[in-house]
Design a protein that fits this description.
It contains five helices and nine strands; from the N terminus they run αββαββββααβββα. By secondary structure, the protein is an alpha+beta fold. The strands form two sheets. The protein has a six-stranded mixed sheet with strand order 1-2-3-4-5-6, with helices on one face. The protein is globular, with a radius of gyration of 23 Å.
């Protein structure tokens, strides 16, 4: 009886440890959001920025902080030129707004998509563009579209043509006039730089400057890895 009681105690301890580790693992990968607002002599800003908690968090947070500093530096540089040139009053200062959405957050990927919006408060059209970050939690590094294509396809140019084919089929009817000038540089991989990876599908988000027409807005194309591989085979036949 004593041996049985002892074994039960060991079992309970092991179960407790496993439950504790499981809870740590499931809650160990998360994004804490902070928001900073303010105004300088040349611009106003409102920035949501993520602070990642989990394995390799120093690598992740360093990249995010560097990215956001670059966003602020860019608008500061442009705004100073505009303000000094046009002598804009303070109530017409450009406003920088940076937000983000989490597409995946677990022990496999942390996938974020940022939206940067600049309201110039003058005759210039507002600027909006996107930036995507795919972080492999297991490997501790960011995955760019070049990395992804090199891992999955031997012919990079053909893979880019496959991406173009998928986007054409999903966004446009091929007989539409503005589809003939689908984008300005369809052979350049930079067109697909807003590339997000999740465990279930792949996402492409487009800045409106990519297109010859503004009718498209900022479309998003979602497809699976299987669809991309099928398109890769299709373009090889042409």
């Amino acid at each position: 009886m004593k041996i049985l009681s002892f074994n039960k105690s060991i079992l309970l301890i092991l179960v407790s440890i496993l439950l504790f580790l499981a809870s740590c693992n499931s809650g160990g990968y998360k994004i804490n959001q902070d928001t900073k607002t303010g105004q300088t002599a040349y611009y106003q800003f409102k920035i949501d920025f993520p602070q990642y908690k989990g394995i390799h968090e120093n690598i992740f947070n360093k990249e995010m902080n560097a990215y956001l500093k670059k966003q602020v530096f860019n608008i500061a540089k442009q705004s100073r030129l505009i303000c000094e040139r046009d002598n804009e009053p303070n109530n017409l200062l450009p406003t920088l707004t940076v937000t983000y959405e989490v597409l995946q957050q677990d022990e496999v990927y942390v996938t974020l998509r940022f939206s940067t919006y600049i309201d110039w408060n003058n005759d210039l059209s507002p600027s909006q563009y996107y930036d995507c970050f795919n972080f492999s939690v297991k490997d501790g590094h960011f995955i760019h579209i070049q990395d992804y294509l090199q891992t999955h396809f031997s012919d990079q140019e053909r893979a880019v043509r496959a991406l173009t084919r998928i986007c054409q089929l999903k966004m446009f009817n091929e007989d539409e006039i503005f589809c003939r000038s689908f984008w300005k540089s369809e052979k350049e991989i930079d067109v697909f730089e807003n590339f997000s990876i999740t465990s279930h599908d792949l996402h492409l988000k487009f800045d409106n400057v990519i297109f010859e027409t503004n009718m498209c807005g900022n479309p998003e194309v979602v497809f699976t890895e299987t669809e991309l591989k099928e398109a890769y085979q299709e373009v090889a036949k042409k």
